[in-house]
Design goal:
Elements: H1 13-26, H2 30-39, H3 41-55, H4 66-73, H5 80-98
Helix pairs in contact: 1-2
């Protein structure tokens, strides 16, 4: 059996943190999680592409003033964790709305 090639890449710290969280949750090493991802790259990439098409994120048009409005109207007691949670809620709601069976239903 031949030697396995070595692949070196630069990865931002937040990606490493996410990778390490997955490794801890699954009881695997960081290297094993990376190998698992690479071994399943064909199906994983097809899944990601299908999700991107399904969610039709390119059709979402945001008003350029949304960020300005959020910054100027955010209560001072709102924490970054709460903002993250609210963002997740918005993504979940958008996902439900984008599904044909989700249109018109209460989220």
């Amino acid at each position: 059996m031949g030697r396995n090639p070595f692949i070196a890449i630069r990865v931002p710290p937040d990606v490493i943190q996410s990778l390490d969280e997955v490794a801890v949750q699954s009881g695997k090493s960081r290297s094993k999680v990376i190998r698992d991802l690479l071994e399943n790259c064909h199906s994983l990439y097809r899944f990601l592409e299908a999700e991107k098409k399904r969610q039709q994120t390119e059709k979402i048009v945001l008003d350029g003033n949304i960020t300005e409005w959020v910054v100027s109207n955010i209560p001072h007691e709102v924490t970054p964790d709460l903002l993250h949670f609210l963002g997740q809620v918005m993504h979940h709601a958008a996902d439900k709305i984008s599904q044909p069976e989700g249109i018109g239903k209460t989220v």
